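Predict the 3D structure for this chain.
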Amino acid sequence: VQLQASGGGSVLTGGSLRLSCAASGPIYSYYIMTWFRQTPGKEREFVAAIRWSGGTTSYADSVKGRFTISKDSNKITVYLQMISLKPEDTADYYCAVGRPISTMMRMPSAYPFWGQGTQVTVSS
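Done. Predicted structure below.
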């Protein structure tokens, strides 16, 4: 599976961005597609996940109510709509796909396939 992330950019506090992650290759119904983010010197952090079959979603507490993960099965693309952005949301955002067990869903090590990062900068 190959993943292509896009949509990053620079916005002011309170602004919005929509990230996209387009997949090529087989995406099986049992896959989970996830967004992580990382800032220099810190570990990669879970942001949001969506089950390919059924569309069940999960969010980090820090983004609940502001970020929405969704998918387009026809385009094999996952989106991350981000609103009310804060400076602390500044990071490189990565999409990943895999089949983690539920207790590992928020762990980067559980995902074998990754897209390149797309940078999000939120300034005050």
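The first strand starts at residue 2 and ends at 6.
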